[in-house]
Design goal:
161 residues, mainly alpha, 2 domains, 3 strands
Length: 161
Amino acid sequence: MSSYLRFLVAGLIGFWLLLSGYWDNPLLLTLGAFSIALTAYLASRIERHYPLKSVTRMLFRLPAYGSWLLIEVIKTTLDVTKCVWMPSRYPISPTLDVVPMTQKTRVGKTIYANSITLTPGTVSVRFEAGGHLLVHALTADSMDDLKAGVMDSRVTAMEKQ
């Protein structure tokens, strides 16, 4: 068993025991052990096909990116609110366009697509051939911000060693 799986199993056991509060009921303990074993089995199968070696490095960079993303979510929430409350002053112009991606790993691409979807007013539709992402944006300005590539470069920087 790899160290990743040992850490996963230990964390799940601790988490389950803390949240359940039932330490003396054999049925619940058995069901908890079964669910942890099933989760570990599925995680080992996933890791066999998609190794998570690069993910651990990205986890240390995730808090800085998450705080930047939170600020972006707040800013775009205000922009979407203005569009909804004052449509004559801030018109909605739905746009569907392709945005380039510079991420190399599956995790990086997933973080980028999820970050776009988490940002109000934009939705990742699908991955396109050639390292592109089809995105729907509520306004043309939102699409222009995405095409400027700030979010893309921040996610790509998380991937690097």
